[in-house]
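Final report, closing paragraph on structural work. Over the funding period we assembled a curated collection of sequence-structure pairs, and we close with a single example.
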Amino acid sequence: MRGTRLPVRYLLVLWLMVLSAVAYLDRTNISIAGIEIGKEFAIGKVQLGWVFSAFLVGYASLQVPAGLLARRLGSRLTLGLLGAWWGIFIALTALIPRGAAYPLVLLVLVRFALGAGEAAMYPATSQFVERWFPVRERGKANGLIFAGIGLSGLTPPLVTAIILHYGWRASFWFSACVGAAAGSVWYIAARDTPEQHKWVGEAERALIVRGRRVAKTAADEDSPSRHGKHEVPWREIFRNRSVLALTMSYFSFGYVAWMFFAWFYIYMAQVRGLNLKTSAVYTMLPFLAMTAGCLLGGVVGDWVATRYGLRLGRCLLPGVALAVTALLLVLGSRVDSASTAALVLAGGAGVLYIAQSGYWAVTADIGGECVGVVSGIMNMGGQIGGACTASLTPLIAARFGWGMSFFVAASLALLGGAAWLLVN
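Its predicted structure, as stored:
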């Protein structure tokens, strides 16, 4: 392993991409299975929106505690435990019996608990990136991690096939097994720091340690013996203009992203009139575009940051991406052709995810050893945005039409892009 051409940090971040795909596999799963779940338990779209939102409320409300947990336990143990959590609570979704007295309540409680546990996912990956990657590679690292979200979009045909042949519960058993296995592999292979990993050679370790501190970060804070043991400066974090701007912007990001995670499949099937198999194929397009957007955003962001400075490299690309996303959302919702709408809206998803690595790279740059807490605060904003779209989208669509649902998302994307002007 020492002689591998691919540095150990990239081997590990590629497995984080797999974990990211697993995290979003379940979200894709519930969206596709939602139609069958609704039929079995007599749950309408608005009530199904509550189920989607329950996950996000649990996920958002535990972001800061999850950041503290990742800081205390380290990314290795935190993500290993997450694999076990996935296995248990995704399986519990499948165990809700036909004819249950209060199926909506059970679904909401199980999804809330699953979201609460999964809150640790990205604060822990941020903790990993801050420890394992020099500043000039953090955009690329985060781009690879979040490319996993797009890879999860390759699964709708598989999930649909499982549902059609074996029922919706089988798709959740599949997700539960995949999640538990992926978490176990991570725990076996990973370590919290490159200093602890026997596969890391001296040259790679020196490169990481030399380049992982932003200039203004105290050398004492970067020391492995002191890292994570300083008091969390809560007042400074919550009064920091960049943290607040990132959180507001990520609220907008989350609102738009969950248009695709929660409603795109149902929109293509029931609004655009496609059958389940065709809708599953079209549902892949936004996720493929997200993968490309994550990778492109990470590489380009690091390139600009290296040549023109961190602020321009981290902030320009996300701000522009959100503005272009707004335009594509409006255009895609107004075209008549279902295939054209799918392509344009998928383009909007891809452009949106060009911004993704910028958010997480900035939290690592400004958060230092508190990156888990800072990224947790930011991600809480994003998941509150997602919870809003999961519940509000069907209400807006029922009253004003789906065009208005996309217009609201586009307006928030513009506001989210403008918020990047405040980040430094």
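Confidence is low (pLDDT under 50) at residues 215-220. DSSP finds 18 helices and no strands in the chain. We thank the funder for supporting this effort.
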